[in-house]
UniProtKB/TrEMBL annotation:
GO terms for molecular function: metallopeptidase activity. It comes from Microbulbifer salipaludis. Pfam families: Rce1-like. Signal peptide: none annotated. The keyword Transmembrane helix applies. PANTHER family: CAAX AMINO TERMINAL PROTEASE FAMILY PROTEIN, SLR1288 PROTEIN. The keyword Signal does not apply. It comes from the Bacteria. This is CPBP family intramembrane metalloprotease. The chain crosses the membrane at residues 28-48, 85-103, 124-142, 162-180, 192-210, 216-232, 239-262.
Length: 263
């Protein structure tokens, strides 16, 4: 279940000793499947809970519960910003504790496994500049080719939903970076995949996480964004830098889409 490895070439973090361990690649892949299941279970719990809440309200008012009517209300609610925030928080509450638990080893803390370590602060501004160039390119492409924002973003535009904004800016970067650029990156980086394979695989998986919410052009930009985050993880040796970039990206999106209503 565990194996020893040295840190990636060029990783500015401290080298692993022979007693330190990282997650075995197949072990990590197995837990990825568990995380995916928890992802869907979180959605189910929220939807079922909301349906139960509606049923309890009707019962308290002495009304006869119509399952079809309740199902229709639940379906309508599921597309609202509040429901999106609630479902993600349910997923967050299920996945994060499991992730922290499986990241602990006899000779290696969860912080080491997830690459939660300091990085040179002089790397921040260059990477912020890279992110700014990426966002500018995305904006130009969207305007130049008049890319359709899609139903998902249209639902969020101008909603000014504070809880969803907090989820997007804080919870999403935290959980997603710990999973993709933390746990999975650490597990696969020292295998035959190497850096290039790990970067590609984690970026593809990160993109698939957003499948169904965005169109193909948007998914292409999400993939490019994931590549930037993976490069930042490799160059800094820390998950904190990609987490910071992810936070900045989502903060920009929250202000522009949620509060200004610009698509």
């Amino acid at each position: 279940m565990e194996h020893t490895a040295s840190s990636p070439a060029g990783d500015p973090s401290e080298n692993f000793t022979s007693e330190q361990v990282v997650p075995a690649p197949w072990r990590a892949t197995g837990w990825l499947v568990v995380f995916a299941l928890l992802h869907f279970i979180g959605v189910f719990f929220y939807i079922a809970g909301y349906g139960g809440y509606l049923g309890a309200q009707l019962g308290a008012q002495g009304q006869v519960m119509d399952p079809a009517a309740i199902q229709a209300q639940v379906a309508a609610h599921a597309a609202t910003p509040g429901a999106m925030a609630g479902m993600y928080l349910a997923q967050f509450a299920l996945i994060l504790p499991v992730l922290l638990l499986v990241s602990r080893f006899k000779h290696q803390s969860a912080g080491q496994t997830l690459a939660i370590r300091a990085f040179p602060t002089n790397q921040i501004l260059p990477w912020i500049a890279v992110l700014a160039a990426f966002l500018a390119t995305q904006f130009i492409v969207y305007r130049l080719f008049q890319i359709d924002a899609g139903e998902f973003l249209q639902t969020l535009a101008g909603s000014k939903h504070l809880l969803l904004a907090l989820v997007l800016v804080i919870a999403a970067p935290l959980l997603e970076e710990l999973v993709f650029r933390g746990y999975l990156f650490q597990a696969w980086r020292n295998t035959r995949l190497g850096f290039s394979g790990t970067l590609l695989l984690t970026s593809v998986l990160f993109t698939l996480l957003h499948w169904g919410q965005y169109n193909l052009v948007q998914l292409g930009f999400i993939f490019a964004f994931a590549l930037i985050l993976g490069l930042a993880r490799e160059k800094s040796g820390s998950v904190l830098l990609p987490m910071l970039l992810h936070l900045c990206n989502n903060l920009f999106a929250a202000v522009v889409v949620l509060y200004l209503g610009i698509l």
